[in-house]
């Protein structure tokens, strides 16, 4: 159990971004594509776990002072460093090998993700703003990898939307850390000494607005119309705004340590997100479901 804990299975939810291409690429009715997407998801879970273990090894001394992270197996001493290194290497090797069997290009993206995150753990996370940019880039790699593994085109607007949305969540996490740790925040993360609540509030506003605008541009794009047969995704905007505003209001209070905790524990957010996913699937697959919107929306 303790070795599973250092792999942070709850954080595997971040890899759900791989399924975006499966849904919006009109492949949800293709069993082969579904199987490849699930395989790609598993590969990224292993790759991410390797990085999480490396992070925990590097941060073990600092994590022992943190009110929540001190409970992690490596920080608490329940898992020794040698064993953690072995698990991390096995996860990375398994991720790359399985990814290569799925698709060499997909494997290249997995390797790129691992290298980027290792550099982030060793250096880039100490650089203010760039730390959040790298995190958002990692999510974009997930989205692109999802498109590669199911062999579909991915809209540039969807990529930019993913980047802006994840940048919003990264800045939100920094704001939440400051709210939770207050004057001790810089002891746990060096870059927090450079952020202020006002600066982060501005960054959160800008990135959330950019994410919504890019979503609207994607929804109204001509290629989206050709692919789905309609542009009705635009009508899910109220749900998008609700989820973004709900996330922003809660994360800035310090109630949750990060986006994963919020997403897994806040029922109103979960309901809003699930309703948006269902509405999106119905709209994207309206032609295959025999649904006609002509008499409802124009």
State the gist of this model.
The protein has helices at 2-6, 19-24, 31-58, 60-63, 73-76, 81-102, 104-122, 130-150, 156-181, 185-188, 197-219, 222-228, 237-251, 259-265, 267-284, 286-289. The chain has 298 residues and is mostly helical.
**Helical content band:** over 70%
| Total beta-strand segments | 0
Spatial gap, N to C terminus: 54 Å
What structural class results from the helix and strand content? mainly alpha
- CATH-defined topology of the largest domain: Tetracycline Repressor, domain 2
Major sheet: size, sense and barrel closure?
A: none
Provide mean pLDDT, rounded.
87
Multimeric state: single chain
CATH architecture annotation name of the largest domain: Orthogonal Bundle
Number of domains: 2
Shape summary? globular
Radius of gyration: 20 Å
Strand content: under 5%
Q: What is the fourth-level CATH superfamily of the largest domain?
A: UbiA prenyltransferase
- Helix and strand run: HHHHHHHHHHHHHHHH
* Total of helices: 16
Unreliably modeled segments:
none
């Amino acid at each position: 159990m303790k070795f599973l804990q250092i792999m942070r299975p709850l954080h595997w939810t971040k890899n759900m971004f791989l399924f975006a291409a499966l849904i919006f690429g009109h492949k949800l009715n293709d069993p082969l594509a579904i199987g490849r997407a699930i395989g790609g998801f598993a590969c990224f879970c292993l790759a991410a776990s390797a990085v999480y273990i490396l992070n925990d090894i590097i941060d073990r001394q600092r994590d022992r002072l943190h009110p929540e992270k001190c409970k992690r197996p490596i920080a608490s001493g329940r898992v020794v460093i040698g064993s953690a290194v072995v698990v991390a290497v096995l996860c990375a090797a398994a991720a790359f090998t399985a990814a290569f069997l799925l698709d060499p290009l997909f494997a290249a993206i997995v390797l790129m993700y691992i290298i980027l995150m290792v550099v982030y753990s060793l250096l880039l996370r100490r650089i203010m703003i760039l730390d959040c940019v790298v995190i958002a880039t990692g999510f974009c790699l997930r989205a692109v990898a999802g498109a590669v593994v199911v062999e579909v085109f991915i809209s540039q607007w969807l990529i930019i939307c993913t980047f802006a949305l994840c940048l919003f969540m990264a800045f939100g996490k920094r704001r939440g850390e400051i709210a939770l740790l207050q004057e001790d925040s810089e002891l746990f993360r060096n870059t927090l000494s450079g952020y202020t609540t006002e600066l982060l509030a501005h960054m959160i506003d800008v990135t959330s607005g950019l994410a919504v605008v890019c979503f609207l541009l994607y929804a109204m794009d001509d290629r989206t119309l050709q692919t789905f047969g309609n542009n009705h995704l635009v009508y899910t905007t109220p749900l998008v705004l609700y989820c973004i505003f709900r996330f922003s209001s809660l994360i800035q209070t310090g109630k949750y340590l990060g986006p994963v905790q919020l997403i897994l524990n806040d029922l109103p957010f979960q309901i809003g997100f699930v309703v948006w996913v269902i509405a999106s699937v119905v709209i994207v697959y309206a032609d295959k479901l025999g649904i006609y919107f002509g008499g409802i929306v124009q």
